[in-house]
Specification:
358 residues, alpha/beta, Aldehyde Dehydrogenase, Chain A, domain 2, 2 domains
Length: 358
């Protein structure tokens, strides 16, 4: 049988988006409030942000454009592949886009939920299957992957090596640690820098789309930056974030490592000795900063910066800023790193085309 195009799937995605953007019912409100009991980082405010972000992603116009651009002709049950999905738990609902891709393609999602995020995803999928019951046939949950024909797995650099070995015999996408950066020209407005604060502090900086390093022009002065991000000072009241802030600050003070400190964020040079333990796999120091710390590196000119970032493009998830560089990395405006569209695939790998090719 040939693959089929199913408008009712688009409609179900659209209805889920409308539901998530609207005033939530009591059951979803309760889940948002209780998420912190299973993962202390999932505060109600941050969980609500993730839920609403998916709602914004699932708007009717973008869904239609996505299906058309990707030429999503759904597979039939006879041609569908069972795709194992190993979901991460660093931020709420972080693997939901992968699930949507599997469902849109007509394949079957065999979902291994993160122990850190076991309740929201099934709830949202139950809502989705309420809008289109046939999708329930494409969703299964498991504690251990088995009987799968392909895999999409997300983990740390260490676990990814295990994934590569374990899943080497089937088609797979293995996601490793990545970080996002921002490029400043020095001409940013206060509003630009405030928006950059969202890129840094959303989800406490735990996502691969969070900015962990700034590239700034030589001699950059941080006063305006610190003034602009002051509205985010409440982050220090979260006990786990505060513990990381205190720990890193004490290390820098004891070792007399130069750094800037505004009371809730530590800013330090990426080429200082204390960043050596955070050297990325390409050998470029200071791409991944510790929690509650932001690294920065000065650049001489845009051309030299372009060359540097080209060399580490495989380690970067996205770049925030006004400057646009001719390198193969997604680039967005300040404040938009944690607002991906349906076609903004993680690691620059087109998940949908991978699934349609199975």
């Amino acid at each position: 049988m040939e693959a089929t195009f199913a408008p009712q799937i688009q409609q179900a995605f659209t209805q889920l988006g409308q539901y998530l953007r609207s005033s939530h019912d009591n059951e979803l409100k309760d889940l948002i409030q209780s998420a912190k009991h299973y993962n202390a980082w999932f505060t109600p405010a941050q969980t609500e942000k993730a839920v609403r972000g998916i709602g914004i992603m699932l708007n009717e116009k973008d869904i239609a454009s996505w299906f058309e651009t990707e030429r999503i002709n759904r597979k039939t049950p006879q041609t569908a592949t069972t795709v194992g999905l190993v979901l991460a738990g660093n931020i709420p609902l972080v693997g939901f886009h992968d699930i949507l891709c599997v469902l849109a393609s007509g394949n079957t999602a065999l979902i291994k939920l993160s122990s850190q995020d076991q309740h929201l995803t099934p709830f949202l999928l139950n809502k989705l299957t309420g809008f289109e019951p046939s999708l329930a046939l494409q969703i299964r949950y498991t504690e251990r992957l088995h009987d799968f024909g392909a895999v999409i797995a997300t983990g740390s650099n260490n676990t990814s090596r295990y994934f590569e070995h374990y899943f080497k015999k089937v088609p797979h996408i293995i996601r490793r640690n990545r970080n996002s950066i921002a490029v400043l020209s020095g001409d940013e407005t206060s509003e630009d820098l405030k928006n950059l604060g969202n890129d840094i502090f959303d989800y406490f900086g735990l996502g691969c789309r969070n900015v962990s390093k700034l590239y700034v022009p030589r001699g950059y002065v941080f006063n305006k930056f610190f003034e602009a991000i002051e509205p985010f000072n409440d982050v220090i009241n979260h006990h786990k974030y505060n513990n990381n802030y205190d720990y890193n600050k004490s290390i820098y003070l004891v070792n007399r490592e130069p750094h800037l400190d505004n009371g809730f964020l530590l800013v330090r040079r990426a080429d200082s000795p204390a960043t050596e333990e955070n050297t990325d796999s390409a050998g470029n120091s200071g791409l991944s900063s510790p929690l509650a710390t932001l690294y920065y590196e000065e650049y001489q000119d845009i051309e030299s910066l372009k060359e540097k970032l080209e060399n580490i493009s495989g380690e970067i998830q996205c770049i925030a800023g006004r400057v646009r560089l001719p390198i193969p990395v997604q680039q967005v405006n300040f404040g938009e790193t944690q607002s991906p569209r349906l076609w903004d695939y993680a690691d620059g790998i087109n998940t949908m085309q991978f699934l349609l090719s199975l």
